[in-house]
Specification:
By secondary structure, the protein is α+β, with helices and mostly antiparallel strands. It has one domain: Cytidine Deaminase, domain 2 (3-Layer(aba) Sandwich). A five-stranded mixed beta sheet has the order 2-1-3-4-5. Strand 4 and strand 5 form a beta hairpin. The protein is globular. The chain starts with a helix and ends in a 13-residue tail after the last helix. It binds tetrahydrodeoxyuridine.
């Protein structure tokens, strides 16, 4: 499978799971799909809550599904929403993605209308806080 085809597969998975997003407060449905190092795809959507800070992002759901399945490495991730320009992962999700991805990992950002942009984890989170800042164990 070539890279473009892989991107479309991931984006299609994100588009599909977005339909299940629970976003009654923002009305902003987001879908995310990630490919783990085994090649398996994990999906997530945003799940809001009446206590607003308890809501979770689509990316966090996809990461939780990956971890629950016993995988720990993200090779690519795609995010999609209905907005004028491709949706970008929020700051917290950038840190969550960086926990499990190399800086070179591809991030595909899309609109439901079909505008697609690609970037990398490193470009989304320059100067990332990582384990190198922690005292050695
Ligand atoms: N949201 C995501 O799920 N992912 C992002 O990267 C951006 C924001 C969700 C959170 C909230 O449910 C809604 O979009 C509006 O902020």
């Amino acid at each position: 499978m070539n890279k473009d085809h892989q991107d479309m597969t991931l984006l299609d998975a994100a588009r599909r799971v977005r339909e299940n997003a629970y976003a009654p407060y923002s009305q902003f449905k987001v879908g995310a799909a990630l490919r783990a190092s085994s090649g398996a795809v994990f999906v997530g959507c945003n799940v809001e809550n009446v206590a607003y800070p308890e809501g979770t992002c689509a990316e966090a759901g996809a990461i939780a599904a990956m971890i629950a399945a016993g995988e720990t490495k993200i090779t690519d991730i795609a995010v999609i929403a209905d907005c004028p320009t491709p949706v970008t992962p929020c700051g917290g999700c950038r840190q969550k993605i960086a926990e499990f991805a190399d800086g070179a990992a591809c991030v595909t950002m899309a609109t439901t209308a079909g505008v697609i942009q690609h970037t990398t984890v490193a470009a989304l989170l320059p100067g990332a806080f990582d384990a190198d800042f922690l005292p050695s164990q």
